[in-house]
């Protein structure tokens, strides 16, 4: 039986059997895990992650003391995300950054299954091709998590995905929600607006979402009842909808 930090050495020893597939990638992960044993971030983004490297990472996460796993632009598909997600509940991770990987709704399902059993407070999934189905998977898991910061920018989120997020906003302690560069539209903006008075959001990004004048007016109508301190609505063609914010801006911190 293996105890303490020796579990990390044991995991890295086991990983050597997989190294034939991707020697450099596995070694890079092994070195990152060793550094994380002293509290460093697991910064592995910017290069493709092979199956062998992902298996090595999953084996080592249990003994790693790293609190941040950064895997942006790593060409992660649904299979690789499933491998990593399975190890998340046994890790010390608080930040999971998977931006710019197109693992889609299937990968989102693996993440959602693991999230309630993790310590993760910051989940960054910008441009991961989630779509409404993937976002709904994440949303359904959120009330049982510690997530305070959620980035879903650029994921083809429409009104249905926005509604799934809105439905759970009052059920957990989310502070920052980034939904920029999606397509939530008027209906999605109205759903989120209706949830704001019962939510704990302090920052909301809805830039480039085609919310139009009606969406802007719905948000303005509840602004004074919300905890929002930051609201981003750029590139939404809200036109005269901007006037709806005038009466409340002087009384809020937005």
Helical stretch tally: 10
Mean pLDDT: 91
Shape: elongated
Q: How would you classify the helix and strand content by structural class?
A: alpha/beta
> First CA to last CA: what distance?
55 Å
Q: Low-confidence parts, pLDDT < 50 over ≥5 residues?
A: none
Order of helices and strands: HHEHEHEHEHEHEHEHEH
Report helical residue fraction: 40-55%
Largest sheet strand order:
1-2-3-4-5-6-7-8
Kindly state the number of beta strands.
8
> Strand portion, in percent?
5-15%
Instruction: Give a short account of the largest sheet.
Output: 8 strands, parallel
Radius of gyration: 20 Å
Characterise this structure.
This protein is of the alpha/beta class and 254 residues long. Helices cover 41% and strands 9% of the residues. The chain is built from 10 helices and 8 strands. It has an 8-stranded parallel sheet. The protein is elongated and about 60 Å long.
Characteristics:
single chain, 254 residues, alpha/beta, 8-stranded parallel β-sheet, 10 helices, 41% helix, elongated
Helix-strand blueprint:
Elements: H1 6-15, H2 23-36, E1 42-43, H3 51-61, E2 68-70, H4 78-87, E3 95-97, H5 104-114, E4 122-124, H6 131-141, E5 149-151, H7 159-168, E6 176-178, H8 185-195, E7 203-205, H9 212-222, E8 230-232, H10 246-249
Parallel strand pairs: 1-2, 2-3, 3-4, 4-5, 5-6, 6-7, 7-8
Helix pairs in contact: 1-3, 2-3, 3-4, 4-5, 5-6, 6-7, 7-8, 8-9
